[in-house]
Amino acid sequence: MNNILKNKPKKQNEYSQKDIEAFHLFSTNRAKLLRLIDEGYFSTLDSELISQIINKAHKEADAVSVAYKRKKKAQWDLYIANQQYYEAQAKAEKEKKDTEDEANRLTNLKRLLGLS
User: Which intervals carry biased composition (Basic and acidic residues) (predicted)?
Assistant: First the structure.
């Protein structure tokens, strides 16, 4: 890829298929790609191919952005679910302890009254 950027070819046919595939991979970085196109690094490619590559880069970047947002939302949802689980677990433990304390209190009260 670096060779493509350092040695601007004079004719379109000087790009090999490997160079074009590298360009496709490189195009996922939209800002850098657009800057390089503006600087004329790919001026020998026809505008149709450049448009296709830019559109592909936009679609891939959008897909990555959507996937990243979904991942972050899933992580947040998992965090919330874990918080709710631990809160419910703590509440259940407290209710269990309160119930045991009440049962012990009633048992002690029965003993004091001589009912047991």
Answer: 92-104
The stretch 19-23 carries a mean pLDDT of 60
Domains held by the chain: number: 1
Q: Structural domain of residue 101, as residue ranges? A: 2-113
Burial class (CB in 10 A: 0-12, 13-18, 19+), 55: exposed
Maximum C-alpha span of the chain: 107
For residue 52, CA distances in Å to 23, 24, 25, 31, 45 come to 12, 10, 13, 16, 11
33 contacts 27 by C-beta, under 8 angstroms: yes
Map residue 54 onto helix, strand or coil.
helix
pLDDT in tens, 41-56: 777 667 777 778 778 7
Owner of token pair 């790609």: 33
Average pLDDT score over the chain:
77
